[in-house]
Design brief:
The protein has 482 residues and is α/β, with parallel strands linked by helices. Among the domains are: 183 residues, ANL, N-terminal domain (Rossmann fold, 3-Layer(aba) Sandwich); 94 residues, ANL, C-terminal domain (GMP Synthetase, Chain A, domain 3, 2-Layer Sandwich). It is built from 16 helices and 26 strands. The strands form six sheets. A nine-stranded mixed β-sheet has the order 2-1-10-9-11-12-13-14-15. Strands 16, 17, 19, 20 and 21 form a five-stranded antiparallel β-sheet that branches. Strands 4-3-5-6 form a four-stranded parallel β-sheet. It starts with 9 loop residues before the first helix and ends with a helix. The structure holds malonyl-coenzyme A and adenosine monophosphate. Malonyl-coenzyme A binds next to helix 8, helix 10 and strand 13.
C-alpha cells in the first residue's frame, strides 16, 4: 500500500497548521495531533507493543484518547475500543476474547480491577506524557490486509464478537462515505457520539480526520452542546435518533435558528421516526440525511446529499457497495466490510455467503422492503434476540443469562418494547419460582451490565408462551408482554 502508512492518517501526517480537533474549546492542529500520536506510537513500542498486538482502548472522548487511538494505529496495533461503562463480566469477555495485552484507560476503573491480571494497564494521559519524552519514529509498514480495529458487537448469543476491520476495509468504506457526503477541509464536524463504536469512532472521527475536516469533540451529548456547536461554526452533525428526539424536545427558536446554519445532519444506528424527521425539518428547515450501517460493514446505504431524502427510508447503496435482498433479508457486498469475526470461523460461516462469481456477501439480519426505485426501508430484524437502545445494540441473551442467575427466577425472556425516546426499552418477562417475589429495583440491582442493558420494565407471568417446539414466542410478548 503506497507509502506503507495508514491512508486514514495521511492528512494528519501532512502536518497542516489547520485545526484537526477542538476539545474543551482548545484547538489542536493536524501537526500537533501528528506529534501527539507519534509520541504515543513511540511509547507503545517502548512498552513492547508490536504490529498485530491487540491494545484495548477504554476511554471516553478526549484528546488523549484520540492520540492513543491514532498512536495505536500508527504502530499497526489492533485497537480494541471498549465501553468504559462496562461492568466486570463485559470487560472480562472482551479482554479475554481479543487477547489484549495492554489496556489503556482514562483513569483507574474498579470494574476492570478483577480482570486485568496478566495485562499491563496505563492511563491515556500517562501514555501521552511518555510519548512527549520520546518522539522517535515508530510507525509500522502497513498493508491493506493488516488488521486495524476489533469492534465488538452483540449477536444473538450472549457473547459479543469482534468485527475485525483492516486498514483497507476502513479506508475503502469510510472514503466512499465521506465522498458521498462531501466531507472536506471546510467542514467542522460535531462528534458527540461514543468513541467505542463504528458510528462515533470510524464514521465521525476517522472519516472526518481523513478528509481534513475539523472535529469538535463533545465528551457527552446534550442538546445544548449541539446548539452551542452550531453557533460556533459546526457544519455537520452526525446523530443517532435519540439525539434528534432530545433536541426536538428542548429546541427554542434561537436554537432552531442556530441549527439551520448546519450544512448536513446525518442520522443512523437505529430507525429514525419519519414523523420526527418531518418535525425537525419544520423547526430548522433541515432534512436529516438518514443512513444505515453495521459494525461489520460500516455504512452501506445512505440517502443522497443532493436529491430527495425520503422519510422512513435509508436510501440506496453507498458507491462501491452492492445490495441484494434474499428472503426479505438485506445482504451487502462491499470493500468496507470487515475481514471477519475475530477468531470465529463458525460465525463467519453463518454470516457470509459466496456467490457463483466468487463475490462475498454479508447477511445483515435486517429485514427490508424496497421502494419502486430501489430505496431501502428497514422493516425489522430477523432475530428477536437483538435490540437497539439509543443506538446501542444489545443481545437479549446476555441480559437473560444474568437474570437467570437470580434465585427467584424460574424462566425469563427479555424483549425490546417500543420506546419513543430510546427506540426500544429493555423489558424482562419473568416467571418466578413458587412463592418467590421480585421487584424491578431488585432485578436492576442484580443485572451487572452496562447501564443501558439494565431492564426498564418487569412483567411477571405464570409461564412464558412457547410454540410447539418449545421456543419462547417473543413476538407475542413484544405485542403484549403481560
Ligand atoms: C438507558 N437509560 C434509560 C434507558 N436506557 N433511561 C430510560 N429508558 C431507557 N430505555 C439510561 C440509563 O439509566 C443511564 O442513565 C443512561 O441512560 C445511560 O445511557 P447513555 O446512553 O449514556 O445515556 P445518555 O448520556 O443520556 O446518552 C444518550 C445517547 C447515548 C443517545 C447520547 O445513548 C448514545 O451516545 N448513543 C449512541 C450509541 C452509538 O454510538 N451507537 C452506534 C453503534 S454503531 P444515567 O443515570 O447513566 O444517566 C452502529 C452502526 C451504525 O449502530 O449504523 O451506525
Ligand atoms: P451495530 O451492530 O451496533 O453496528 O448495529 C447495526 C444495526 O443497527 C443494523 O443491523 C440495523 O439493525 C441497525 N441500524 C443501523 N442504522 C439503521 C437505520 N438507519 N435504520 C434502522 N436500523 C438501523
Amino acid at each position: 500500500m503506497h507509502d506503507g502508512s495508514n491512508p486514514l492518517l495521511r492528512v494528519v501526517h501532512a502536518r497542516g497548521s489547520r485545526t484537526a480537533l477542538i476539545v474543551d474549546e482548545r484547538p489542536v492542529s493536524f501537526a500537533a495531533l501528528d506529534d501527539l500520536s507519534a509520541g504515543v506510537a513511540a511509547a507503545l513500542v517502548h512498552r513492547g507493543v508490536r504490529k498485530g498486538d491487540r491494545v484495548a482502548l477504554v476511554v471516553r472522548s478526549s484528546l488523549d484518547g484520540v492520540a492513543c487511538l491514532l498512536g495505536g494505529l500508527r504502530v499497526g496495533a489492533v485497537v480494541v475500543p471498549v465501553n468504559p461503562g462496562y461492568q466486570t463480566a463485559e470487560f472480562a469477555h472482551v479482554l479475554a476474547d481479543s487477547g489484549a495485552a495492554l489496556v489503556i484507560v482514562d483513569e483507574p476503573c474498579a470494574a476492570l480491577d478483577g480482570v486485568i491480571a496478566g495485562r499491563a494497564v496505563v492511563t491515556s494521559g500517562a501514555l501521552v506524557a511518555e510519548g512527549a519524552q520520546t518522539l522517535d519514529a515508530a510507525d509500522a509498514a502497513l498493508h491493506a490486509d493488516d488488521l486495524a480495529l476489533l469492534i465488538y458487537t452483540s449477536g444473538t448469543t450472549g457473547r459479543s464478537k469482534g468485527c475485525a476491520h483492516t486498514v483497507g476495509s476502513l479506508a475503502a468504506g469510510l472514503g466512499a462515505l465521506m465522498d458521498l457526503w462531501a466531507i472536506g477541509p471546510d467542514d467542522v464536524v460535531l462528534n458527540a457520539l461514543p468513541l467505542f463504536h463504528v458510528h462515533g469512532l470510524c464514521v465521525c472521527l476517522l472519516g472526518a480526520l481523513a478528509r481534513g475536516a475539523c472535529t469538535r469533540l463533545v465528551p457527552r451529548f446534550t442538546p445544548e452542546a449541539v446548539v452551542d456547536g452550531a453557533r460556533r461554526g459546526v457544519t455537520v452533525f452526525m446523530s443517532v435518533p435519540t439525539m434528534v428526539y432530545r433536541l426536538l424536545g428542548v429546541l427554542d427558536d434561537d436554537g432552531a435558528a442556530a441549527l439551520a446554519a448546519l450544512r448536513l445532519v446525518t442520522c443512523g444506528s437505529a430507525a429514525l421516526s419519519a414523523e420526527k424527521l418531518r418535525a425537525f425539518h419544520a423547526r430548522t428547515g433541515l432534512t436529516i440525511l438518514e443512513r444505515y450501517g453495521m459494525s461489520e460493514t460500516l455504512i452501506t446505504v445512505s440517502n443522497p446529499l443532493v436529491g430527495e431524502r425520503r422519510p422512513g427510508a435509508v436510501g440506496k447503496a453507498v458507491p462501491g457497495t452492492l445490495l441484494r435482498v434474499l428472503d426479505d433479508e438485506l445482504q451487502v457486498s462491499s470493500a468496507g466490510t470487515m475481514k471477519g469475526y475475530w477468531q470465529r470461523p463458525d460465525a463467519d460461516a453463518e454470516s457470509f455467503v459466496t456467490d457463483a462469481e466468487g463475490r462475498r456477501w454479508f447477511k445483515t439480519g435486517d429485514v427490508v422492503a424496497l421502494d419502486d426505485d430501489g430505496a431501502v426501508r428497514i422493516v425489522g430484524r430477523a432475530s428477536q434476540d437483538i435490540m437497539k437502545v439509543g443506538g446501542y445494540k444489545l443481545s437479549t441473551r446476555e441480559i437473560e443469562e444474568q437474570i437467570e442467575g437470580h434465585p427467584a427466577v424460574r424462566e425469563v425472556a427479555v424483549v425490546g418494547l417500543a420506546d419513543a425516546e430510546w427506540g426500544e426499552r429493555v423489558c424482562a418477562v419473568v416467571a418466578l419460582h413458587p412463592g418467590a417475589s421480585l421487584t424491578l429495583a431488585e432485578l436492576q440491582a442484580h443485572v451487572q451490565l452496562a447501564e443501558v442493558k439494565r431492564p426498564r420494565a418487569l412483567v411477571l407471568v405464570d409461564a412464558l408462551p412457547r410454540n410447539a417446539l418449545g421456543k419462547v414466542m417473543k413476538s407475542a410478548l413484544k405485542q403484549r408482554p403481560g
